[in-house]
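Mods, move this if it's the wrong board.
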Amino acid sequence: MNPATPAVHPPSAAPPSRVRQFYALTKPRVVQLIVFCALIGMVLAVPGAPTWAEVQRAVVACFGIWLVAGAAAAFNCLVEKGIDARMRRTAWRPTARGELGDGQTLLFSGLLCAVGSAILYVWINPLTMWLTFATFVGYAVIYTVILKPMTPQNIVIGGASGAMPPVLGWAAMTGDVGPEALILFLIIFLWTPPHFWALALYRVEDYRKSGLPMLPVTHGNEFTRLQVLLYTFVLFAGCLMPFAYGMSSWLYLVVAIVLSIGFCGYAFALWRHYSDGLARRTFRFSLIHLSVLFAALLVDHYLF
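Not the wrong board. Structure tokens:
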């Protein structure tokens, strides 16, 4: 399948500045969520109120993680520029439009990764650097290059790299990986498939045109809806683990139960009576679910 011809700017519209083009490659909204989840791991790793030195350490660690995550996103844009050009959701990206060349994008990605890794190694600790670099390889190479075009389970297996941010944050503050960090990893790992498949359901034609074997394309709408529902049930159990392990109190438990019931409710409605609008609302609620869940962990940590 030949890539679609890159979109051309209308004569009246000036192309974005180079700075905005490179910034767009980092997928800012995605990276913001990654850094937020890493910050939660950092905060939970420190008992009580952090010292000024710990605050500085967290800021530096967040910056290093942001750089490496942005590098992975830029590499993803490079590898998938042909696919992005065929999908309405991603056709605006500078690589898909031909506004940035392969060499420019590769150099930008390599520079971000090198600088971010150096910051983490020198000012944080080697463990955080190697875990972050492994996450870069997991997303940019194993997921993007190997898994995504090969199997409809790509988002399940590749979700491991997306679930790493709290682990990175925990390692940045403690120098090791505790069971609490692994619980946070598990929550995001279980959250990723229903979150992404809800998006894939209402964007199925985009994915069909792209040639990627996403679950709604290979197994159909009904099967994917069932998988979304089943994963939300398993995620419900996973969200209770911070309370069961003793790393949170009743405040988090109440929030986790309410959010999980809401996510399961959306998934059940989606399974029974599908519509693109409902799939879109389910996707949006999944973002609220994870953000509020981790915010509740943060508030709970300081109040109890």
